[in-house]
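Format notes (please read before filing issues)

Several people have asked whether sequences and structure tokens are stored in separate files. They are not. Every record keeps both together, in the order shown below: the sequence lines, then the token lines. Line labels are part of the format and must not be stripped during preprocessing.
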Amino acid sequence: AEQAQAELARQAAELAAAAAAHRNATANSTGNAAMAALLDGNLAQKAMLAYHLFGFLCTNQLLMAVTMMTIAGAVCSWYWVLDKDDMQPLPIASALWRTCRYSIGSCAFGGLIIAFVQFLRYVLAYIDSKTQKLQDKNKFFKILMKVLACILWCFEKVVKFISKNAYIMVAMKG
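Then the structure lines:
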């Protein structure tokens, strides 16, 4: 029983490390810390951890999209009112309602795209950590991994920029 509890505690620590590493992923271009949790364990555990990591990324991006669209909707409802005394009593609550009622699909799709790109970055970081010995021997492969990491980082930033502006347009136009 103690051994099973210790194993559950180790797995929980691995998931917590993956979540903490995701929060720091913007500062760490390769995201090696999140993939370090995948280094030990069997294939089923690795697959479940990857599945849950992708689910976490999707959920995180969905919440961020709903937040951005709610803020944009509240600002638009304030900006487009000519007489500020005629404004809705709860602009943030009504913007959240409009977002959840009419635009949740746009938020989910944009969040899915961003989460997929982030997941690709984590997979690349995992491959990078598993091929360190090969990279020490082959400088071309090491440079290739760094270039791919940079390309994926730039691609994520571009997708986030486009998605943020798309959320604002959806909040404005409906």
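For reference, the curators noted about this record: The chain is about 80% helix and 0% strand. Helices lie at 2-23, 32-35, 43-79, 91-102, 104-130, 132-137, 139-173.
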